[in-house]
């Protein structure tokens, strides 16, 4: 168990958070009165007391809230806990949704001492059940449900789509099929055909959000702007060529042009990344062919089963 050491809020983004003795956590919103609350996955930010004390030991004079954290909690190494871990505080219940974050603009602490721990040690959560919390409350950790639905994300690569010049039909189709098959789709992203942007998003989804399955659509052909396979291979630690080969082989029964696909698939951490074609028809056919086998692969990857024997 842990202990709630401090509660910090600010009415406006970009301003320093101040300490309060109690606060209300509102379901699917965050801390009432805090500027960062809202209907998204980073409703409440958490930081371990031990990390703040270690930072102070280096000579930095920091107060609770200086890193932008909502809750300072003693007793947990948040960064090494899996996304999906839950915390009970008073009547409220939080669920971790992201580990760390990118620092877009350095805070006052970074500018003063040249470092900030929030981007690498802070975590974020959403409010599953609301309630009042008070400084000194006991914090109880509840391990992530091993049988919870696999999470998924969809990334559409399209220069015209990202500029609003073309409607994205493949992305919503992927989301629909994943949802029908029991996946919890937690993010959909539409970006231009840019290798650096795609690598950045894939790394974020795998490392910070720990998404189980990421599907991309578009950017797998011969055009100079088709960079999806290169970005995928660059971020993956292990490739899974059988998935992409199976999709191509099946697609060849539909059209010989399927041989022109350069799509790749691979694993980063415990995240499986699969490149799909750009057209809705090809997406539909590809997903129908691979969906029945994906769940077993994800179960093995995430330690939910170890039996690969055919029955």
Secondary structure: elements and pairs:
Blueprint: E1 2-9, E2 18-20, E3 22-26, E4 30-31, E5 44-48, H1 49-57, E6 71-74, E7 86-89, E8 92-99, H2 108-113, H3 118-121, E9 123-129, E10 131-134, E11 138-142, E12 151-157, H4 159-162, H5 170-180, E13 184-191, H6 195-208, E14 213-217, H7 228-235, E15 238-239, H8 241-252, E16 265-268, E17 271-276, H9 280-301
Parallel strand pairs: 5-6, 12-13, 12-14, 14-17
Antiparallel strand pairs: 1-2, 1-6, 1-11, 3-4, 3-10, 5-9, 7-8, 7-11, 8-9, 15-16, 16-17
Helix pairs in contact: 5-9, 6-7, 8-9
Key features?
311 residues; alpha+beta; M1 Pyruvate Kinase, Domain 3; Molybdenum Cofactor Biosythetic Enzyme, Chain A; 2 domains; seven-stranded mixed β-barrel; 9 helices
Characterization of the model:
It is a single chain. The protein is an alpha+beta fold and 311 residues long. It has two domains: 2-142, PK beta-barrel domain-like (M1 Pyruvate Kinase, Domain 3, Beta Barrel); 151-301, MoaB/Mog-like domain (Molybdenum Cofactor Biosythetic Enzyme, Chain A, 3-Layer(aba) Sandwich), CATH 3.40.980. 29% of the residues lie in helices and 28% in strands. The chain is built from nine helices and 17 strands. It has helices spanning 49-57, 108-113, 118-121, 159-162, 170-180, 195-208, 228-235, 241-252, 280-301, and strands spanning 2-9, 18-20, 22-26, 30-31, 44-48, 71-74, 86-89, 92-99, 123-129, 131-134, 138-142, 151-157, 184-191, 213-217, 238-239, 265-268, 271-276. The strands form three sheets. The chain has a seven-stranded mixed beta barrel. Helix 5 crosses helix 9 (280-301), helix 6 (195-208) runs parallel beside helix 7 and helix 8 (241-252) runs antiparallel to helix 9 (280-301). The longest helix is centred in the last third of the chain and has 22 residues, at 280-301. It is elongated. The termini are far apart. The model has no long low-confidence stretch (mean pLDDT 93).
């Amino acid at each position: 168990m842990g202990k709630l050491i401090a509660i910090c809020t600010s009415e406006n983004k970009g301003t320093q958070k101040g300490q309060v003795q109690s606060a209300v956590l509102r379901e699917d919103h965050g801390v009432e009165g805090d500027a960062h609350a809202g209907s998204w996955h980073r409703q409440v930010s958490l930081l371990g007391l031990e990390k703040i004390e270690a930072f102070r030991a280096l000579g930095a004079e920091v107060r609770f809230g200086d890193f932008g954290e909502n809750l300072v909690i003693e007793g947990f190494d948040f960064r090494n806990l899996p996304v999906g871990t839950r915390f009970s505080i008073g009547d409220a219940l939080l669920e971790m949704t992201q580990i760390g974050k990118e620092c877009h603009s350095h805070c006052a602490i970074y500018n003063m001492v040249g470092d900030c721990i929030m981007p690498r040690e802070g975590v974020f959560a959403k409010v599953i059940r609301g309630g009042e919390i008070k400084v000194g409350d006991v914090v109880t950790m509840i391990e992530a449900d091993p049988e919870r639905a696999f999470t998924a994300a969809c990334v559409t690569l399209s220069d015209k789509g990202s500029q609003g010049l073309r409607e994205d039909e493949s992305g919503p189709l992927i989301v629909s099929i994943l949802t029908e098959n029991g996946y919890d789709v937690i993010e959909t992203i539409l970006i231009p055909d840019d290798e650096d942007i795609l690598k950045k998003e894939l790394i974020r989804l795998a490392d910070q959000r720990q998404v189980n399955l990421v599907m991309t659509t578009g950017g797998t052909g011969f055009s100079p702007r088709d960079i999806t396979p290169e970005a995928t291979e660059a971020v993956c630690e292990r490739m899974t060529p059988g998935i992409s080969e199976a999709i191509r082989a099946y697609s060849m029964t539909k059209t010989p042009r399927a041989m022109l696909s350069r799509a790749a698939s691979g694993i980063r951490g415990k995240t499986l990344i699969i490149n799909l074609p750009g057209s809705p028809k090809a997406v539909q056919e590809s997903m129908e062919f691979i969906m029945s086998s994906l769940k077993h692969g994800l179960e093995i990857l995430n330690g939910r089963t170890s039996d690969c024997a055919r029955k």
